[in-house]
Amino acid sequence: MTYQSDLLSTLASRGYIHQLTDATALDALAAKQVVPGYIGFDPTAPSLHVGSLVQIMLLRRLQQTGHKPIVLMGGGTGKIGDPSFKDEARKLLGEDGIKANVASIKRIFERFLTFAPEGETGGPTDAVMVDNADWLDALEYIPFLRDVGQHFSVNRMLSFDSVKLRLDREQSLSFLEFNYMILQAYDFMELSRRMGCRLQMGGSDQWGNIVNGIELSRRMDGTEVFGVTTPLITTADGGKMGKTMSGAVWLHEDQLPHFDYWQFWRNTDDRDVGRFMRLFTDLPLDQIAELEAREGAGINEAKKILANEATAMCRGRDAADQAAETARRTFEEGGSGAALPSATVSDGSIGIVDALVALGFAKSKGEARRLVAGGGARVNGERIDDDTLAIAVTGEPVRVSAGKKNHGLLILGQ
């Protein structure tokens, strides 16, 4: 389909669209007026990770094409948990933990979106962050059941894949979690009433929740609202985006050093370079087409550009430049860079097994020993075959490597 609006044209050309509700009507609306649109994020940790990045970029594209992004923090729904494709119930957080996570996560969005200056109302396309606890915490149970609950069919809710997955595995689905989809539908209607929100976006696993919100707004208010979902982002080898041997790829530098974030993008599979550039950078499409067509050394240079641009957007240009220089010194000159992940050694010596665990290259001592036995451990470029080796750490940092792509520094503590 050929779109008339910059919004849908951009989303389609960069690979964000999986499903749309009434594409023709949404396209016409986006072509003639500012469309406020939202995505919800549950504050279950102090940072979001790369798995949330496509949704953050979706809000960025919304703003870039002249519309208003609404970041909805689930301070209310976060107290319950979303059952969508989860194997078990999510740990419930307290009020203080949720508030701290919301404040921490906002710093991420301020790097991707333009918000109004503190204390100012802002313009029609300035991003806003709201918390659904503002209205969900004030709901009265009986009126909510009477006014909202009547519009939901339990039979239909049981048919959603997110629910069926848990039930088919005979895993517990609590009444708390079962209410989540009703509350999310209510969020959409509440944002429509409060802020004129006309669009909800999310991952493909949120399709049922989005459709619920559209139906609720139509039945209770007679308002036409729309939904867009993105495809599940997997790597070329079929793996889940953002999953690595060392764990989640966090967007906050508090949880993941700049170099590790840069290196995650640098390690992209050749087949994913163009797709990830379209999704996760602002590079023009014609430049991306040229870069993804490269082969050999050329595609490696393209990966560095992807790493530089993705890191600069999330961590700042200085962080990207520092990480790129660290990589150049580490891989091209055999030196060490200050942006590498590091571990402090207080007594001047550490075993190779403990070093690999401390740097996050192995999750356990047993895994570290297997890494050594397989020939994957090096100290200052020299292969280590003895898992009892003690590494002396004096004035100069010691470079420890796990495989060809993971490098870190051991630094003498005070």
UniProtKB/TrEMBL annotation:
What biological function has been recorded for the protein in this entry?
A: Catalyzes the attachment of tyrosine to tRNA(Tyr) in a two-step reaction: tyrosine is first activated by ATP to form Tyr-AMP and then transferred to the acceptor end of tRNA(Tyr).
Q: Which protein is depicted?
A: Tyrosine--tRNA ligase
Q: Does the keyword Repeat apply?
A: no
Please list the reactions this protein catalyses. tRNA(Tyr) + L-tyrosine + ATP = L-tyrosyl-tRNA(Tyr) + AMP + diphosphate + H(+)
The UniProt record lists the keyword Nucleotide-binding: yes
Major subcellular site? cytoplasm
Q: Which NCBIfam families does the entry link to?
A: tyrS
* One annotated GO molecular function: ligase activity
Q: Which SUPFAM superfamilies match?
A: Alpha-L RNA-binding motif, Nucleotidylyl transferase
PROSITE patterns this protein is in?
A: S4 (PS50889)
Q: Where does ATP bind?
A: K243
In this chain the Tyrosine--tRNA ligase SYY-like C-terminal domain maps to: 339-392
Q: What family is this protein classified in?
A: Belongs to the class-I aminoacyl-tRNA synthetase family. TyrS type 1 subfamily.
Where is L-tyrosine bound in this sequence?
Y38, Y180, Q184
- What does the record give as EC number? 6.1.1.1
Compartments (UniProt record): Cytoplasm
- Chain ranges for the short sequence motif 'HIGH' region as given in the UniProt record: 43-52
Q: How does it assemble?
A: Homodimer.
Q: Which HAMAP family match?
A: Tyr_tRNA_synth_type1
Where is the short sequence motif 'KMSKS' region located? 240-244
**Origin species:** Sphingomonas insulae
Q: Name one Pfam family in it.
A: SYY_C-terminal
Q: Enumerate the UniProt keywords alphabetically.
A: Aminoacyl-tRNA synthetase, ATP-binding, Cytoplasm, Ligase, Nucleotide-binding, Protein biosynthesis, RNA-binding
